[in-house]
Batch of 2 targets.
Target 1
Amino acid sequence: MSSPTSTRGHIARWALNIYAGLGLLFLFVPIIWIVAFSFNQPRGNYNIVWQRFTLDNWRDPFSDQGLTQAFVRSLQIAAISTSVAVVLGSMIALALARYSFKGSGPLNFLLVLPLTTPEIVLGSSLATLFLDWDITRGFTTVVIAHIMFQVSFVALTVRARVRGFDWTLEQAAQDLGSSPFRTFWKVTFPLILPGILAAALLSFALSIDDFIITLFNAGSLSTFPIYIDGSFRVRFPPQVNVLATTILVFSVLLMSIGLLWGLRSRRRNA
Amino acid sequence: MNQRPLPRSRRPLSRRQLFLRAGALGAGGLSLPALLAACGGDDDGGAATTAPGTTPGTDAPPANGGGDELFFENWTAYIDPTEDGEIGTVDRFIADTGIQLRYSEAINSNNEYFARIQPVLGRGERIDPDIIAPTGWMAGRLIDLGWCDPLPLDQIPNAANLVEGLRNPTWDPTGEFSLPWQAGFAGIAYNMDITGRELTSIDDLFDPEFAGQIGINTEMRDTIGLIAMSLGIDIETLSSFDDAAPAFERLEAAKDAGQIRRFHGNDYFDDLTNGNFAACIGWSGDVAQLALDNPAVRFAFPESGGTSWADTMLMPKGAINRDAAATWMNYVYDPEQAAQITAWVGYVSPVEGVRDALVEIDPELAENPLVFPDDATVAATQSFASLSEDVEAEYDREFSRIIGA
Amino acid sequence: MTATSEPARQRVMTSRPDLFGLFALSGAGLLLAAVGARWVTGPLVPIALGLVLTAIVAVIWTAVAGSPEAKRKIAPYGLLKPGMLWLALFYLAPLITLLRLSLSTLPSRFAVDAELDWNIGNYTTAFTDFAPQFGRAFLYAGTATVFTILIGFPLAYVIAFRGGRFKTLLLGLVVIPFFTSYLIRTIAWRSLLADTGQVVQLFDTLRLSGFFETVGIMDNGRVLNTPAAVIGGLTYNFLPFMILPIYVSLEKIDPRMVDAAHDLYSTSVEAFRKIVVPLALPGVFAGTLLTFIPAAGDFVNALYLGSPNTTMIGNSIQDQFLVQNNIPLASAMSFVLMFIITVFVIIYSRFFGTEDLT
């Protein structure tokens, strides 16, 4: 920026940059620990004291069967719940962004509520519902719970992305004789797709990571975080770090692809 | 063993070496003859693990009652695994009987496990496992609630091998609902590097020197039991809340003073080995295991005595695979098989004749007073009284209030 | 009984499709919530579900067979319906059930079903026995929120105004840590903060321990299992929820405006205060809610990083619900927590305006 800066201003500027840099570093401290300890060869059951470097854990990421099962189960739950939530949430987002209609205020409020309710209240209240219904908690109840918080999340994320779009395109297409169905697939859907994908990625991550709500509704089902919490009482194998690092790398890859894709389409549109 | 492989450090050999060390300590004149090796079955944990593709509870189809399947939910690290060329009990059982045993380490704590199965059993529905392994007092609660099926004892001839001391226990006076799995003791676990001295009494846990470095167990019967014994209270005859009130007061005062770093279940291993805890209330067998990570970790019976407990095998109401369950119980009550388990877990076995069988496998262990407690040891331990429902509720309420969770 | 056979309703549907849609949507939602919470029981259940179904069918029918005008007006309600019904059944109904259970009593200690007897004893217990946990929850969450602003605002500011072409990359870096499990990150801190861990060692090496001891961050050379560790954990875990909304509102500011402000006001501090801060407030508002609310209900940080004297209300709810099996008491505590937070949000919104939590 071009404003004239005195020496003092210069120092202040750099001080602020360094402060921000430290803040960013703070975010990464545990991440560095997690990645580093995936290369540790622990001496006992707890991979929390550095012993020596090894690649064994990476050579055998699935050696802990219980952990692997829990991990796969979390992926299944996330896949199912995200698919449902993305459809329901995108429909809501489309309604909110595309139309102005009576009652949108209160409905909007209801949508925001689940995100402003503490997880422990969401988890415990849903568990009381299942108890009241005499439903044994397990896989299905966890999926239902995840969809519940993902719907709001997807709806708000997609709405934020599609707000301010030029919806007259739709009208134009219809005026030109395109059927509503065709209009949707050819005009509307491509417009909202990037938003939907971003929301899907994030809510997938939310699902895999969710611990509190899941704990209340899992019964004896063991998901990835629940397994880690339970087994941490007696052990903490390096495979936890390996799988966590894998999720991290994978998410970063997906995010980068998404970003590049977004940049490209923005350039194309411009 | 069809479950996840158990930790490397649980190798029988290293464990036996430990018993040697622990035994030497005991012989070397620690204040009490007893350093008992018994893993903390009471709160041994691990997350619920289930076999691939199954969803416990929700909509698992009832297994066929044909007797070729079995599901056992147990505590963590509570059976010999298949490793290092030795075949574990689960796999031997499958090979010998052809019964597909699904062995799962799903129990973290008695209360937590109860909270999980209660809504199902309480509605009169069945839970998936055919055999579960609650601690004695919890077994008593389940039996009193009528949530257990009597064992098919006529199909378990080896039940006759049950040691005298564990017959008709308080929680199951007729002995028709439960067979003990393993038994053990609670005492002081400490890290010699931090304490700098040997600990011999419960008073050491309240020593201001260790302020903020003490772990206290969330298993009420062990914690209150040990503290009450140190105050000269007989815990076998407790009948009202007031009987044990001083122990609760002592605990609360220590908590308020910041003496206690954390209340722990079976999750004290890392804090103890890494020195976050100077001492805590632990289970002796765990300590043998932990000493592999850190030789400074020790176990001691307090001068005022330790508490004893037993974990049981019982069949929840409506368990389908009754025949297979009987076959399993008969199998592990065979002294030869039981000795294999003992050789690895280092508990006090409830099976008569294990000592003779163990001489063949591991003669040193067979002489270990930690696994085969002598009369003096037994005399120095007490087990917590079985409380009436109302009194127990009062104990639990007060305890959970103090631990402040 | 289908909507098509009723001429009167048909007229409403076609003349005022928006009113009809709103009515069908909210009516169906409330009915479903009532059935879910078992307010409606017995033979009324099939009737209620029939009405819900009718409402759905009627909306679809209007959307398919109505006039183009009716179609357009009914469309948003049709789109909203599935998601909103899901929320009605699995968000609203559970809250009603929670409220009912909190006013119930277990007939015996190990009974499964609590009986509704309008017993407010659970609430008195929640307030008397668990007041410290409530207090700590709000104190820790509030403190952590302040820290997230102190750390997050400058970070968001630097990214938004000085990020240049690295803006997206920097923003990505803020988000990346949160693609590893929350639980594992907290366990990582537990290891880092341990008595023999890297953080304590660092403090010792830098000779900062004495200072930290004085300001109360350390306690007898310990960081782990102190209030500071819990607040630190909360700050860490919710930091991005503060950074991102602040960034979003800062990004909308035209840098030229800040430059102009520099010219206008004598000091950059003043320029910052008069231009940047007011424009960033919506972000801070959203960030505060997104940080404070989950932090107040959290139990993971207190569980892994705290001590018996730092337990928060989340720990108590979790313990009463999942370990002690006292579900009515846990429900009462949950409800109180939600009530306090809702009141907080409403008051807070009055001061800062609402809209836009994303």
Note: Chain A touches chain C through 92 residues (CB under 8 Å).
Target 2
Amino acid sequence: MMLMKRRDFLKVSAAAGAMASLYGCAGGGKASGHVVVVGGGYGGATVAKYLRMWSEGDVQVTLIERNPTFISCPISNLVIGGTKTMEDITVSYDGLKSKWGVRVVQDDVVAVDAAKKTISLKAGGSMSYDRLVLSPGVDFMWDEIPGLNSADAQSKILHAWKAGPQTVALRKQLESMKDGGTYAISIPKAPYRCPPGPYERASLVANYFKQSKPKSKVIILDANEDVTSKKGLFTKAWADLYKGIIEYRNNSEVKDVEVGTNTAVLEFDKFKADVLNIIPPHRAGDIAAKSGIKLINNRWVDVNWLSMESTSTPGIHVLGDAVFPAPTMPKSGHMANQHGKLAAAAILNMLSGQAPNPEPVVMNTCYSFVDAKNVIHVASVHQYDAATKTVQPVKGAGGVSVARNELEGKAAMGWARNIWADMLT
Amino acid sequence: MKLFAPLAALCLLAFASTSQAADPNLGRNLAATCANCHGTNGNAVKGSGMDALAGMEKAKILQKLADYKNGDKPASIMHQITKGYTEVQLDLIAGYFAAQK
């Protein structure tokens, strides 16, 4: 009799429509289950903490991260410029473990089986999930710069676009460079991780040269038509502070490199540098493509902005730089943290039989240093728009600094301390 | 089967209405967008120079936000951010932070 009722109920609920069966009808029940988070950066660490905090420990969370500690990309340009150390941008995962009860596993995810809801680990073994969150950051499209497509080439010509050993190595190259040398940084076509980041780096390297190697030059090889972020503020800083040091070249896409001579190959030109810093074009971290979820332009993950869930594959949510951006949305650590909270709220609703919040909001704040103390910002607020099914920037909100200033230099470090705590402690 | 059909209809109705209504955790979710700078639940890191909003009186938070939004209070960034939220959203945010410890 009971079995019969259950069968009838299943038939009825199937007939009740796809939406109802997606979230069930339990409405208001407690969330429970196991969420596996892949990647412990700005997006992944945030969603892990917020799932535990908001479920009051009812949802089990496993965070799989390949690195032993969190190393921040934001602020890492100050390490390259020589005014901060790696220690300043490194935070332990211990807070997530001890304070929030997140199970942190140092490993790599090599495969996702969306049908069976399992992931496979590099070290061996697999793990099942109720919901999976991928926060894989970016991986580089080495094919686009053929000369860099080997481990040897990549150890000589650095990107330092993932904070870690490359940050240290680039700093060492700059320290070893003779005065009178040239540092060249290449920027891929947008969209790329951290739009103002390359211009900040060029400014901070120029700041180091001005003080320690004043005959040296900084060349920016930008594949874009113009400076992509905070243009007026950056160009003013370069004119005021680094005249004769920084040279900006637009429409200068690097197509290849000659490793032996540290030469960047452009369409009609070649450029030899003493320190060549190539930021190759990038796409969603490799695990996104391996998991079989839908990518746009074969690069970025298509998500539902109410839940950050893949539009092709139910049960898999994707955060941060890996996502095909909503209109004017930057790929930033701050934005990844906001994605993490949006996803945490949606996942808890879905695990307790409710629809996700129908009106999510995310916002971005990004500070860039133009020297060791002076900072410029850009900010924006993005509200969900049901008509276009995406988050849209609010007109009249957001904007940039009036001028570079030291007060925002202090705010930038305050931002860093608070966002790292918001993610990890 | 007969018994369950009306239940299913009710279920569908309940879903349709809840999907339109505001999320019960809307204030919490909105306030979380501020936490990047102002700390989780408004508990800013001590000595970080950011305003800690946890436990601040709701009227006081709302006044600060209104002053930023109207340009009555000088700001480097908050005048730009407050304009991105509706009055209803700012009210929910202020209410949430006021209720935190």
Note: The two ends of chain B are 51 Å apart (CA to CA).
